Amino acid sequence: MVDIAANVAEYLRDRNREERAASFDYCFNYFQAFRASDDIPGIAQPANLEASCLHLGYYLASWGMLRGSTVLHSKSYRFFIPVIEAIAGEPSEIWDIDVHRYNDPTVNALLELTERIRTAITAKPSEGGLAKNPTNTLVTKVLLGVFGSIPAFDTFFTRGLRSVTGKPARLNQSTLRAIADFYRANARAIDHERVRTVDFASDRLTRLRYPRAKVVDMVFLIEGGGS
Predict the structure, then answer these.
(1) 128: exposed, middle or buried (C-beta count within 10 Å: 0-12, 13-18, 19+)?
(2) Residue 131: phi, psi to the nearest 5?
(3) In sequence order, what are the residues at sequence separation of 6 or more whose Cβ sits closer than 8 angstroms to the Cβ of residue 145?
(4) Which of 88, 90, 148, 149 is in Cβ range 3.0-4.6 Å of 211 for a Cys bridge?
(5) What is the pLDDT of residues 142-201, one digit of tens each?
(6) pTM of the entire structure?
(7) What is the domain count for the chain?
(8) What Cα–Cα distance (Å) separates residue 35 from each residue in 8, 98, 136, 169?
């Protein structure tokens, strides 16, 4: 039995505006502000493009995605321009997907989105070399920090999910349906843990709440031994 409240409390115990946990808040706040103002294409407009790359890049760096073995280790933040352009081109219905809306059509749309983001963030081959494909961890961290639509499929999350469901935690339809089943069985507890994000400037809580996918992410990350 997963203790949802205890796991979330453990995850958020150090959340303040200077700690790593708040990196999600700042990234999510930034991109969701464009959605709220009905200006998703504005994410990639020249006046916003650099800030968009920086927000995404620092969030990913904060969660270990710029380490030496990663696709991003040798790149500047200009490398994120194609993925920012891809994000800015996504229709509003993509931004509406969260785990409470997982069904066959939305799960398929989400998996198609992961492939578009994967393509956008794939490192071009050096002379005589091969293209460097991003991991599922990297791709899903982008989707979580920007759209709030899917948990991040890192080592701790997948270990925690596997320990609870007893099934392989792969980025596919079966696993996303299992996440949907977990949400439906625990909807009240998960919805209760949708805390408000932290504002960068004031350190106060905003009106924007964590998506359900983020709560699920926190629950299984802690269950899998993460912190």
Answers:
(1) exposed
(2) -65, 145
(3) 24, 27, 28, 31, 56, 59, 60
(4) 148
(5) 999 999 999 999 999 999 999 998 888 999 999 999 999 999 999 999 999 999 999 999
(6) 0.93
(7) 1
(8) 26, 15, 25, 30
